[in-house]
Amino acid sequence: MNPLAPRELLAPRRLRRLPLNLAALAVLATAAFPVYWMVVTAFKPTAEIQSATPAFLPLHPTLDHFSTAIHAPGFGGYWRNSLLVTLGAVLLSLAVALLAAYAVGRLRWRGRRAFLLLVFTAQMAPWEALLIPMYVIARDTDMLDSLSMLTLVYFMTTLPFTIVTLRGFLAAVPAELEEAAQVDGCTRAAAFRRITLPLLAPGLLATSLFGFITAWNEFAFANTLIIKNQDARTLPVWLSSFANVFGTDWGATMAAATLFMLPVLLVFLFLQNKVTTGMTAGAVKG
Amino acid sequence: MPTDAPPPLRTRIRPYLLIAPTLVGAAYLLLYPVARNLVISFQHFRLAELIRGGAPFVGFDNYTALLSDPKFWTVTVRTLGWTALNTALITGLGTLVALMLVRLGRRMRLAVMSALVLVWATPVIAATTVFQWLFQSRFGVVNWALDQLGLHGYHDYAWFAHSGATFTVLVLLVVWQSVPFAALTLYGGLTTIPGELYESARIDGAGAWQTFHLVTVPVLRPLFALVTSLEVIWTFKCFAQIWVVSQGGPDGATTTLPVYAFQIAQNLHKYDLGSAASTLTVLILLAALVTTLRRMHRQEGAEA
Q: Residue A34: which of B131, B144, B285 has the nearest Cβ?
């Protein structure tokens, strides 16, 4: 125990910490309020939403707005599109990144540094600057209005991050384990599959969930590459046009936003601790 | 079993086989679009050329047209201001929140961090929709609160019909979304400072400000540089929020370079000018980043 400074003897600890805790409460409220307001609005009956004095709790909670959102035309299709594009991009990116991460993390070869530099550059690339050429390329190759083009774009935008993060996770698995298995007669590939891959599983999961969030939320490319075929739209584009869908029905709009956010929130809850490990594995060891 | 013989061919080409899919992907989906963007920016490429092909090369015509357009300069200056304002607010508030987090008790810290992660997890478009609702003129809670506080001018105030107000809402939205990342990253850095450093500073008689200046700042500086450069990139290229809230309006008051490039390409079918604007956007971003990073590097070198 440190000896108490005189100042600390004079003012009680709780009182001294009051300004700090008030500041913390202010930050907490500012951060949480918009999300809280979204959920509360979604549960309020329209009469309470359109009232001169807003109610800070739903007095008569209702599920009507969720029902409106779910029964909006095309809702199921947009969910399917978003899921297909996101899962396709994440799985493709994971498979390709695993190979590259192994090459970078376990093997020594000429051009390794140049390759890493390419990956880091791609990670920082302002992808939005490529909207126009991507549109032109998609048009030339007859891939406009198709989910496969969107899947490819999301694969590429998540790939650099996935390589860097997987490389971090791979570095945490001792190479000696693999070498021991090879001494015992395993081939290099078998040693990787049987020894390293199981140990890498949590890292693979965390990385893919980050990729999932990136692709799930993407708006700019989805808005540019899918124009004529409205059925091929994804959730973010659909939600962005809520005024056309729900007009001034803010309850339904907030219900749709809540439903759209739900998978991301579940992923975050699932990740919790891995959020920080994944970040450090990706950022610090990169 | 190391031997002096060179490794077999299979072993030597293995790494290149492993990175081949990445290279193919990057070639088609990154390098090719970058090259295509450059080529289009030197062509006459409008709707007719998009449909029929055969776009003729016109040299630097598109760049000359852009650079001699006063609107382009207005947009560029606005983009730099937008980036500077957002980055300053995000890193400033992020640092304050991070410093607050280390001083909080365990339970309060957990609560604040959960709220920050919640914001971080909110999808961009969901947040954008919510902010449109918060600032809605008739039933928006912000106007109600301002009215209650005595600012009756905000009763039924149409935020999205006024240029300054729309700009303000967009800044608030981007700052709200970005502070959690900055705060949590800097907090992560603060927790790596060993307690002994603070203790020895205290024993040597350093005050709170001196301790902050001599212990906290040097440890945090590299991380601060990283966060700042990431925020510069993110706010500079920010597109979705602006496009969804205002499409660059009202009266072009929230048009930044990425929005401008997209507008002239997609709405006016001037793909050539749009590509040139995109290229200039990336060049300006690079210039801004190199300057920032070099200055920070120099500061670090001077104090080391």
A: B131
Spell out which residues of chain A touch residue B274, defining contact as CB-CB under 8 Å: 132
* B87 CB-near residues (< 8 Å, 6+ apart): B228, B231, B232, B235
Global pTM?
Answer: 0.87
- What are the start-end ranges of the E strands in B145-188? none
Residues 199-238 of B with CB under 8 A from A: 226, 233, 236-237
> Which residue among B105, B111, B130 places its CB closest to the CB of A257?
B130
Domain that holds residue A251: 68-283
Q: Note whether B115 contacts A31, CB cutoff 8 Å.
A: yes
Q: Which of B265, B97, B290 is nearest to A139 (CA)?
A: B265
| Residue A28 resides in a domain | no
Residues B206-215 pLDDT 10s: 888 888 888 8
Tokens of A101: 């991460």
B113 touches chain A (CB under 8 A): no
User: How far apart are alpha carbons B42 and A20 in whole angstroms?
Assistant: 57
- Helix axis angle, A147-171 to A112-124, nearest 10°: 130
Total number of domains in chain A:
1
Q: Which of residues 143-172 of B touch A (CB under 8 A)?
A: 144
Cis before B250? omega within 30 = yes
Nearest to B122 by CA among A159, A39, A208: A39
What is the ipTM metric for this complex?
0.86
pLDDT at residue A285 tops 80: no
**Class of domain B61-303 as given by CATH:** mainly alpha
